[in-house]
Amino acid sequence: MTPEELFTSALGLGRQWRVAECRFEGEPKRLELRLEHVPGEHFECPVCQASCGVHDTIDRRWRHMNFFQYRCELVAKVPRTWCRTDGVHQIQVPWAREGSGFTLMMEALVMLLSAEMPVDAMAELIDEHDTRLWRVLMHYVEQAHAQSDWSAVRRIAIDETSARRGRRYVTNVLDDENSRLLLMVEGRGVQAIGAFAEALRQHCGDPSQIEAIAMDMSTSYIKGATQYFPQASIVFDKFHVMVLAGKALEEVRLQLQREGAQLKGAMWSLRGNTWNLSPERQAQRKDLCRQYTQLGRAMSLRETLQAIYANSDRQLAEAELRWWCGWAARSRLRSFRHLAQTIRQYLDGILAYFDTKLTSGAIEAVNGIIQLAKRMARGFRNFVYFRTAAYHRAGQLNLDVPNMLT
Fold first, then answer.
1. Inter-CA distances, 373 with 127, 176, 201, Å
2. Coil, helix or strand for 147?
3. Cα dihedral sign for 105, 108, 114, 115?
4. Which helix (H) or strand (E) holds 70?
5. Bridge partners of 173?
6. Which pLDDT tens digits describe the chain residue by residue (406 residues)?
7. 10 Å Cβ neighbour count for 288?
8. Alpha carbon separation from 130 to 101, 107, 163, 185 (Å, rounded)
9. Nearest to 225 by CA among 296, 151, 159, 281
10. Strand-pair partners of 36
11. Cβ–Cβ under 8 Å, residues 390 and 145
12. Pairing, β 30-37 against β 70-83
């Protein structure tokens, strides 16, 4: 078997194509495989699939997987057919996707590596410009995302995450049932919610199917949800409320420290839940709360609020939250008085948690995955790259990637 016959068989070119020449050239050396179509063969018209003769040819080149340590490229004179109905068109070659400068096997390798490493690192590994690799990644990710079905989505979580420095944010929308990232859009206002409503229609869904939306207490998100999903329950989950309680406690600690209290090194003893602290930090927390009455009241308020969330009954939770707000208002702690006002203002959305048990914990985890990808890539040049990487890592997409074994 000649080298040409060997490569013809290895590439799986079929009966219409063959490797005409194999040669090493350039510096550093690269393997170039020159392909040709079998004389006299007819090809399908790309438009109507009628069998047509060859009108002329056009030179094309594709990057293939390396042959051992050598860069490998395929070169071919691609026929253009003349169809009586549709005129002259370039045929589709069996080893590459239309418009791509890579073979299907090379694209499969790119997609395999992109799931495990940043694109710039992959570009260095396979000696390609990262822009070309981004085009491959965007093709398969955007194709799969466009074909995804959202008709079964009923409960969603909405949150923002940082896109770039300079207070530039994006809004992420997550399917609560399976923690699938549905949409990422620039900004964090009403328009972001409107963009999801429009995207939902494009993915076989309808805004009326959304039953509950978990979000923070952002005025713009609330306005957008009310405008585009009027029938959905707005849920402010316990994590957001407890974050606000933690911030209120931190303000009390900082105020005491400004007044001269000896609280150096106590920050981590006062943060978080008691059961997550070491025995030494638990003891320090108790001593500080006994020593500083304001700190003790603040800690009691925070822990009582957390205990209220252990209730499963909405009516009981509502009564206890109203009682807690009265206690906080009388506490003489400015930060907790402000928190009590916030809870009263958003009480309906806070109580909706007890009906739905819907939280934004999953979207916080997805945001962590997205931010990790951003750090690994040392940032992205533009929003499209950022969104593509996010969908690839967290979108649970059904990618139609070529099989490297065929």
1. 21, 22, 29
2. helix
3. negative
4. strand 70-83
5. 158, 183
6. 788 888 888 888 888 889 999 988 877 888 999 999 888 788 888 888 888 888 888 899 999 999 888 899 999 999 888 888 888 888 889 899 988 999 999 999 999 999 888 999 999 999 999 999 999 999 999 999 999 999 999 999 999 988 876 568 899 999 999 999 999 999 888 999 999 999 999 999 999 999 999 998 989 999 999 999 999 999 998 888 999 999 999 998 888 888 877 777 677 777 777 777 788 888 888 888 888 889 889 999 999 999 998 877 889 999 999 999 999 999 999 999 999 999 999 999 999 999 988 888 888 889 888 888 888 777 788 899 999 999 999 999 999 988 755 5
7. 20
8. 13, 13, 20, 23
9. 159
10. 18
11. no
12. parallel
Query: Are 146 and 183 in contact, with CB atoms under 8 Å apart?
Result: no
Tell me how far CA of residue 341 lies from CA of 239, 243, 251, 311, in angstroms.
Answer: 18, 15, 16, 22
- Contact of 207 with 229, CB cutoff 8 Å: yes
> Residue type for 50, please?
A
Lookup: tokens for 188: 């964090």
Longest Cα separation, the chain: 96
Q: Taking a C-beta distance cutoff of 8 angstroms, is the pair 263, 256 a contact? A: yes
Give the end-to-end CA distance of the chain in Å, rounded to a whole number: 21
- Residue 166 CB coordination number (10 Å): 6
Strand spans (E) along 176-278: 180-186, 212-214, 233-235
Rounded to an integer, what distance in angstroms lies between the CA atom of residue 251 and that of residue 271?
12
Instruction: Kindly write down the DSSP assignment for every residue of 156-179, as one continuous string.
Output: EEEEEEEEETTTEEEEEEEETTTT
Please name the residues in contact with 146: beta carbons below 8 A apart, sequence gap of 6 or more. none
Check residue 372 and give its pLDDT: 85
Structure tokens at 373: 């990808």
Q: Which two tokens stand for residue 135?
A: 């085009």
Contact criterion met (CB below 8 Å) for 57 and 31: no
Residue 213 CA to residue 176 CA, distance in Å, equals: 9
Q: Using CA atoms, how far apart are residues 13 and 11, in angstroms rounded to an integer?
A: 6
d(Cα 91, Cα 249) in Å, to the nearest integer?
A: 69
The span from the CA of 173 to the CA of 155, in Å, is 10
Residue in 299, 344, 346, 302 with CA at minimum distance from that of residue 325: 344
- pTM equals 0.85
CA angle 260, 264, 268 (to 5 degrees): 130
